[in-house]
Amino acid sequence: MKQALVDMNTKLEQDLWREFTRGSQEAFRALYDRYAEVLYAFGRRYTSDSELVKDCMHDLFLDLHTYRAGLALEVNVRFYLLKSFRRKLHLALKKPAPLSLDRWISTDPTLPMGTFSYGIEEEIVADEKQREALHALARELNELPARQREILYLKFKHELDYDEIAAIMQISVPTCRTFVYRAVKQLRTRLEGFSVAYLFLLLFA
Predict the structure, then answer these.
(1) How does DSSP assign 117-148, residue by residue?
(2) Which CATH code of 3.40.50.1000, 3.40.109.10, 1.10.1740.10, 3.40.5.60 fits the domain covering 2-93?
(3) What is the Cα–Cα distance from 145 to 182, expressed in whole angstroms?
(4) Contacts 24+ apart (CB under 8 A), 116-124
(5) Would the CA dihedral through 17, 9, 88, 53 be positive or negative?
């Protein structure tokens, strides 16, 4: 069921992209509406400067609109936008920036589960032991090297494949796979008794 929804969304985005490259302003606005929040959240993982993130978003969509006639018709829209946006951010920041996941962890135990990013609500995770495991997962993620954190974010949040992640990160596909394997293995060891895959599903919801 989930894969069917992913395929449906992918087809819709590809249709919008083709219409946009052919000059449709409505398709351009639809793409912006679908990805503005996604790109903003992605950018805030690299910098707390919200205005810089917004400026880079503006520049990205301006470039897309200006050069739309020369863009490829068949692309993975999410991959293309994330890769292009990341490049603009890094140029703006003058250096590669580590992905920050600090906001996943609540420093106040009285705060609701909404203190996790990506809208995890307390009613979704009603089990106290499960909530503790999610907090532990977030802490362990923050202990990973920045590059591993970023790869996991792209893999499990944005559901990109290894080829796409490797292209964004400018590493080889085998290296990308190794980063994921080592990170997941480490997390499974430290979170024994819980399904890391299931916790990822909740954390990146």
Answers:
(1) STT--TTTS--HHHHHHHHHHHHHHHHS-HHH
(2) 1.10.1740.10
(3) 11
(4) 116/203, 117/41, 118/157, 118/203, 118/204, 118/205, 119/205, 120/202, 120/203, 120/205, 124/202, 124/205
(5) positive
For 96-136, write each residue's pLDDT tens digit.
555 555 544 444 443 332 233 333 444 444 466 667 777 77
What's the number of CA atoms in the CB half-sphere (13 Å) around residue 12? Answer: 9
pTM (2 decimals)? Answer: 0.64
What the block records as the tokens of 43 is 């950018």
Q: How far apart are CA 47 and CA 79, in angstroms?
A: 20
Which range has highest mean pLDDT (7-16, 121-130, 157-166)? 157-166
Domain 104-203 has CATH 1.10.10.10: yes
Name the nearest CA neighbour of 10 among 54, 97, 74, 71.
74
Residue type, 10: T
